[in-house]
Automatic annotation (TrEMBL):
GO terms for molecular function: DNA-binding transcription factor activity; transcription cis-regulatory region binding. PANTHER family: LACI-RELATED TRANSCRIPTIONAL REPRESSOR (PTHR30146), XYLOSE OPERON REGULATORY PROTEIN (PTHR30146:SF24). This is Xylose operon regulatory protein. It comes from Bythopirellula goksoeyrii. Keywords: DNA-binding, Transcription, Transcription regulation. InterPro entries: Homeodomain-like_sf (IPR009057), HTH_AraC (IPR018060), LacI/GalR-like_sensor (IPR046335), Peripla_BP_I (IPR028082), XylR_PBP1 (IPR054031). Residues 283-381 form the HTH araC/xylS-type domain. It holds the Pfam family HTH_18.
Length: 390
């Protein structure tokens, strides 16, 4: 009979991101029934729990975000996996959501709505915010779009004042050119931005479209208007961390290279539900394509939704969206196929049907043309890993 191991979880329970990590760890535990788990209720940045000092367990999964936690876990000398971007303890395996892919997804969301001016609201004391900001800015600049940046002051900085910070943010929002698409580094920053816009009577999403990160559903729905948000795959991140720790406690050697988990999609809400295009017919066409691309529509179906000839639709669409209507249909289908390949075990024939492609061969050829990988290779690279063994 396999000995039941004791595992400590040093992960806060006060936010949606961390609770998603816990859900993934729980899923792995329930599948394998391996561990007795020690976890306490704690906030982000909390001091290490007192019981950890003399704890005699077998492994730890920790979100190491303070030097106090880092110092204590360094002294434990037991298998450990880090699920924080802070990287305060080197030479241990770590699992994190892919912040650069998160930024790309947010940027593409705003580009698809026709924005040519962008802004990022960040918290530079955190690695994950800096990585998102760097990628978002680079993507904008590579497309010759303007990108404006706001760096929030650290809350623990000497002399910090919420009143002063809000005043500074308000002045920045007033100074931004409109219309503009803004990525907030996480949902709480997005909620603050929406409050400022409401106070300044700036129309959201028409003048300022906002997208956050984490999909903290309650917080997003509390916002006025409700906040769109990139969905990090925290469940998979937690599952990966648990799987890594399991391998370590079995004595396997693991690579210290990061496992970066791609986001699973975007929860689209009213804060970005707009097209910054001054052409009502093209906006109508875009909405029709977005809602129906995976049902097998063609450009002929789009023409039934707008009072334009095919030549005029193609010309105006290419000018404003920088793609043809057909390319936009295929792009949305490929995005949907990527999610299904990552998140389900559906066969290629089933995915073909669910994404509106006429047959599996055409789907595979289109997918490889856009992603530079076959669907099977993409699924192999993006499904749950097997532990980064060396």
């Amino acid at each position: 009979m396999t000995e039941r191991r004791s595992v400590a979880l040093l992960i806060e329970t006060s936010n949606a991101y961390a609770r998603g990590l816990l859900d993934g760890i729980i899923a792995y535990q329930r599948e394998h029934e391996l561990w007795s788990i020690y976890v306490g209720e704690q906030d982000r940045g909390a001091v290490p729990p007192g019981w950890l000092k003399n704890w005699k367990g077998d492994g730890i999964i920790a979100r190491i975000e303070t030097e106090a936690i880092a110092s204590m876990v360094r002294r434990t000398h037991i298998p450990m996996v880090d699920v924080s971007a802070a990287r305060l303890v080197k030479n241990i395996p770590w699992v994190e959501t892919d912040d650069r892919l998160i930024a790309r997804m947010a940027a593409q969301h705003l580009v698809d709505r026709g924005f040519e001016k962008f802004a990022f609201l960040g918290k530079p004391e955190f690695n994950w915010s800096r990585w998102r900001q760097d990628e978002f800015k680079a993507l904008a600049e590579n497309s010759n779009f303007e990108c404006f940046e706001f760096s929030s002051s650290p809350v623990h900085e000497k002399g910090f004042s919420w009143t002063k910070e809000r005043k500074r943010l308000k002045a920045w929002v007033e100074s931004l050119p409109k219309p503009i698409g803004v990525m907030a580094c996480y949902d709480f920053a997005g909620q603050q931005l929406l409050d400022i816009c409401r106070e300044l009577e700036i129309a959201v999403p028409e003048q300022v479209a906002v997208i956050g990160v984490d999909n903290d559903v309650r917080l997003c729905r509390l916002c006025t208007p409700p906040l769109s948000s990139v969905i990090p795959d925290t469940h998979r991140t937690g599952y990966e961390a648990a799987q890594l720790l399991d391998h370590m406690m079995r004595g396997e050697r693991l690579s210290e290279e990061a496992i970066l988990v791609p986001p699973s999609g975007i929860a689209e809400r009213q804060s970005s539900d707009v097209y910054a295009i001054d052409d009502e017919d093209i906006v109508t066409a875009l909405r029709f394509i977005r809602e129906n691309a995976c049902t097998g529509i063609t450009v002929a179906d789009v023409l039934k939704a707008v009072p334009l000839s095919r030549r005029m639709l193609e010309h105006r669409f290419q000018k404003l969206v920088r793609r043809t209507p057909h390319a936009e249909i295929v792009r949305i289908r490929i995005d949907r196929a990527c999610r299904l390949l990552r998140e389900t075990n559906l066969t290629l024939s089933e995915i073909t049907a669910r994404t509106g492609f006429s047959n599996p061969d055409y789907f595979s050829a289109a997918f490889k043309r856009h992603m530079h990988l076959s669907p099977r290779a993409y699924r192999k690279e993006n499904k749950l890993s097997r532990g980064n063994r060396v």
